[in-house]
Every structure is written in structure tokens, then in C-alpha cells.
Amino acid sequence: MRYSSETVERAVHELSKLPGIGRKSAQRLVFFLLKRPAEDVKILAQALLDLHEKVKYCSICYNITEQDPCHICSDVHRDQSLICVVEEANDVVALEKTGEFKGLYHVLGGAMSPLDGIGPDNLKMRELLTRLTGQVHEIILATNPNTEGEATALYLVKLLRPLELKLTRIARGIPIGADIEYADEITLSRAIEGRVTL
Amino acid sequence: MALSKTEAIVLRTRRQGETSKILSLYTQHYGRISVMAKGARSIKSRYGGVLEPQTHIGLVFYRYETRELQYLSQAEIISPFAKLHEQLGRMAMAAIPCEMVERNEANGHVNPALFHLLLSTLTVIDGAEKGYRNAVRAFMVRYMEHSGFKPEFAHCRGCGQKQRSDGAFFDFSKGGFVCDACSGTLGEGQKLSAAVLERLHYFLQAPLEKSVQVSVDAAQGREMDRFLLSYMQYHIETLHHLNSIIYLDKIQSTLRIVKPDEQRKQYGDSE
Ligand SMILES: [Zn+2]
Ligand SMILES: [Zn+2]
Fold first, then answer.
1. Could you tell me the distance, in angstroms and rounded to a whole number, from the CA of residue A96 to the centre of ligand 1?
2. Rounded to an integer, what distance in angstroms lies between the CA atom of residue B13 and that of residue B36?
3. For B47-94, what is each residue's pLDDT tens digit?
4. CATH number, domain containing residue A165
5. Which one of the ligands is nearest to B163 CA?
6. Containing domain of residue A50, as a range?
7. ipTM
8. Do residues A11 and A98 both lie within one domain?
9. Judgement on whether residues A83 and A50 belong to the same structural domain of the protein
10. Which of A84, B214, B219, B229 has the highest Cβ tally under 10 A?
């Protein structure tokens, strides 16, 4: 034990399990929390406990939600014929921020990765198939533009192609604000492939 | 600490923090290393697609001999293996040799010949019109040679007699086939047909890119794949339950919409 208090040691240990937090940062957080009023810390603790008590997955789109179906799936003003497939709930948050997309989502819960042993049955693929009733006309594949996201998109194309739906993939290429001369070959060739007629 | 330059195959990547990646690489001059690429997942990263699994890159890194984790300074693509990344079957095949190397090669064990073997395997999977599944089979046979378990398919381990037309029993512990006269008490192993012995022998001897021209029918393919996995796992503990093999089976079995022949072609099996 490095601290004179076993409780402090335990808090540091638990916090350092969080992504991007090492022992040093965990220690800083613990000493910060010790100086805060007890009431503030209670609110934080309750917020963390509520995560598991109240938050669940939407039984339709597998986004995180407190009501089932989630507010997106139960919104009658959204375009029911359009489903955007993403890897994680974070991606829904990012896409919703744009305010551009008015359809529904489907959260796979990750991406296919052979070395990590993540195959199609570890993701919500079958659940996507069951959603594809007559009213869905287009599926937008918005998986990440990396090897795992590409593999997932390729798999979904094979799985969905026989269903004769419109299948689209979000454009990949040069990010806004970047310089073409510094882009790598893969990014550039994707950008040329995905060019649009003006 | 020294700035070191080498070529590498990206075997696997893991997310680190908000925007970084840890790369597992097999390098030409330093064997398997782990390298931290700061900011590599940021949308404005100067690395872009350079640091994706199953690419051939050139890199400069800060090398600390006593540490497990190295730090990336620069990287550029030598070959993106574009076709490999555009087809599910090729991608799944390429993951197998990458996982074998990632699992079994110890940090700091340098083997430039293995680097070249891995590089040519991925080059064939990327470039071959068909039959690239054989490149993975040839990789496995050669990998066993690199690991000190070179299999013998042409001559009896006991008396040196050439194999006959009716096949033979391959004894795992002896690392080769044994003829009936020499068999005595048989150890763990598998009966192999003459056609399979011949093909495996060819994979061991011929340049890797020639392997794609070898015809392997469905039954021979199954026999060969069962043998290769059992032989590797008999000698090398870390090659048990390869995730990439389970993955391949899963995508093949869930995409059964296509005809079996069509399916075989899609996964690079030769006719
Ligand atoms: Zn929902
Ligand atoms: Zn003999």
C-alpha cells in the first residue's frame, strides 16, 4: 500500500482502470474529490450508480436509452424508411449533433476484428436483419473508415445485397481543414473513388 | 534511446486513450515490437491510413532497448495492399498469418527471413487472382520450419524411403511421415493422402507465389487444413484457438447464401 489510507488506495486503484487514466491522474482525481464537499461527491457517485440502474439498450436499435424504445425509434416524425448503421452509441451522438440525418439508427456494438475474435455473431447483425421489413428502403453504412469498420461494411453488403434495398456507404477521404499534399495514398484513393459530380 | 529505421507489417492495432493507437508490428530488423502512435486516431492525424492492420510500412521510431513499448516518430506506406482491404475473404485470410506471428513471436527475437515470408504471403493474398488460400497454407508450412519443426513430406522419417502412391501416416512428434515398415508404435498424427503430401511438400519447397497455381479440391483442402492446424498446435501452445480461424469459419457459415463453389472461390481456394 502506498497511501496511509486503504480507502484512498482503493479509489486510486479503481479510477486507474478507466481508459486514458494512469495511476498519477487517478491520484490527482482522488485528492481533488477529497477536497470537495461531501454532497458533491455523493451526486457524482449517484450519477455513476444510475448508469447501471437506469440506462439500458433500446430493443430496436440497441442505442443506449432510459426508455424502451428509445426517443429516436419512437419519434414518428423521423424517416422510418432510412436506417443508418453505426458501430457504437457514441457515433449516434456525433451524427445527431449534425442535425442532418432524419432517419433511424442501428448500433452494432462494435466492429468485426479477426485478431480480437469479434465476428458477426458478436454484433447486432441478426437484429438488423429482423428490422428490415417492407418500410425500410435504404441502409446507410456508417462504420469507421478503418480496417475493422471496412470489414464490417463489406460483410453487411454481402448480407444485405440479396434483399434488394438501397445500400449506401458514407464518403471517406480528406477531412475538412486538411492539406491534400499530406494525405496518405489510401485516404487519397478513397477520396478519388468517392468523388461526386458537380 | 536511439532513432531506428526499419520496415514492418502492421499486425494489429489497439486503441489507446482518446486519439492514440498502440501498434503491434513485425519488423525486418527488430522482430516483433509494440509502438505507440500518438494522435493516430484523430481525424486530422498525419498518419491517415498508414497505420492500419495488414499494411506494409516504413517507420522511424524511438527505440528504448529495455522497454516493452516504443514510440513512433514517422511512418509511411510502402504497400497499402489495397485489394486485400477491399475483399472480405482476402482480409480474413491475411489475418491468419498476422495473428500467428503476433501471438508466437517473442519481443526482441529478430528474424528477417520471417519478415520476408510474411510480406510475400500478404503480397500474394493481395495480388493473386485466385488460389490465395494456398499462400496461407504455404505460410503455415514455412512457419513451422522457421520455428524449428520443419515437416518432412517426401521421405519416411525412419528409413528415408520415398512416399508411395497410397499416402502415409504423418507422425506429429517425429515431424514427418513414417512408412508402414517403420511405423512400430504410432504416436499422435494424421493419415495423409498422397495428393496432400505432394502438395504440402511443394508448398515447403516452391516460391510462395507459385502456391496459388496448385489445384486443391474441397476434400484435399479440408484434409490439409485439419492437418496444418493440428501439427502447429501439437508443437506450439500459443497457436491454439486462433481467433482469425474461428472468424473465418463464422463469416463463411453465416454467408451461406452463395453456392459452395462460389464460396470457395471467394475465399481464395483454387478450383
Ligand atoms: Zn432505438
Ligand atoms: Zn520407413
1. 13
2. 10
3. 777 788 999 999 999 998 888 899 999 999 999 999 999 999 999 999
4. 3.40.1360.10
5. 2
6. 6-54
7. 0.87
8. no
9. no
10. A84
